[in-house]
Amino acid sequence: FYKRSSKVITNSSKCSKDLENIINFKVQTIFSPSYLVNKKNKKNKKNKQKVFLAVSRLAKEKNIFFLIDAINLIREKNFILKIIGDGDQKQKLISYVNKLNLEKKIKFLNFKSNTDKYFSESDLFINTSFFEGFPNSVVESLSNNVPVLCSKSHGGIHDIIKNNTYGNLFDIDKPQNLSLLILSYFKNEKFFLKKMKKAKKNLKKFSINECIIHYENVLSKL
Predict the structure, then answer these.
(1) Alpha carbon of 207 to those of 95, 168, 214: distances in Å?
(2) Is residue 127's pLDDT more than 90?
(3) CB of 32 within 8 A of CB of 11?
(4) Tens-digit pLDDT profile for residues 147-165
(5) 9-10 and 28-29: which strand pairing?
């Protein structure tokens, strides 16, 4: 059915390339409209405790057990991790956190339709997925002036982070890769903030207006 289509579109460069190799048909990339320009600057926090944030469906492909294991390795540091989302693994994840006695370090919050408040309170965003079509939450994090640490998942993360230019990528073969990266953040926060600020120039292509322009262009040629 792909070859009978007038146009095939995916939401990331890698997905387009992978699909082209499968169907032997030209695939166009139009990114997800996840960048909102009118974000306010983060307020300076008086509390020295760092706040880490993960916004994710609590399902196997999101690899949250890996995140918990990485946090367990650096539990002595002064931070709290907030995980926003629901899913079929939620109760197992909560039980695992309790088993590791990490209740004071990791807090589970339910799904939130508006996460701006939580981004504004956060210092670092973490994504540990095995794969993503296009991780909108990573763009939202950078839009809210929060540095990001992301797994080298298949999909749109490479369009957003651009080979560690606008954030930091890690391999998911072992939790130490993430825990060491977090420790690096504690040692040199300015380095991570600098990447986040550079990302602003790259975010425009993920805006609603850009998405509309590309789809209008496609439809006008059909």
Answers:
(1) 39, 22, 11
(2) yes
(3) yes
(4) 999 999 888 999 999 999 9
(5) parallel
Question: Look-up: residue for tokens 């002036």?
Answer: 145
Q: Phi first, then psi: what are they for 197, rounded to 5°?
A: -65, -35
**CA-based angle 87:92:94, to the nearest 5?**
90
Rounded distance between C-alpha atoms, residue 69 and residue 81, angstroms: 12
Question: pLDDT tens, 197-215?
Answer: 999 889 999 999 999 999 9
Q: Which of 201, 150, 205, 157 minimizes the C-alpha distance to 35?
A: 205
From CA 42, how far away is CA 23, in angstroms rounded? 45
- What's the predicted TM-score (pTM) here? 0.92
**Would you place residue 2 in the very low, low, confident or very high pLDDT band (cuts 50, 70, 90)?**
confident
3-class state of residue 158 by DSSP: helix
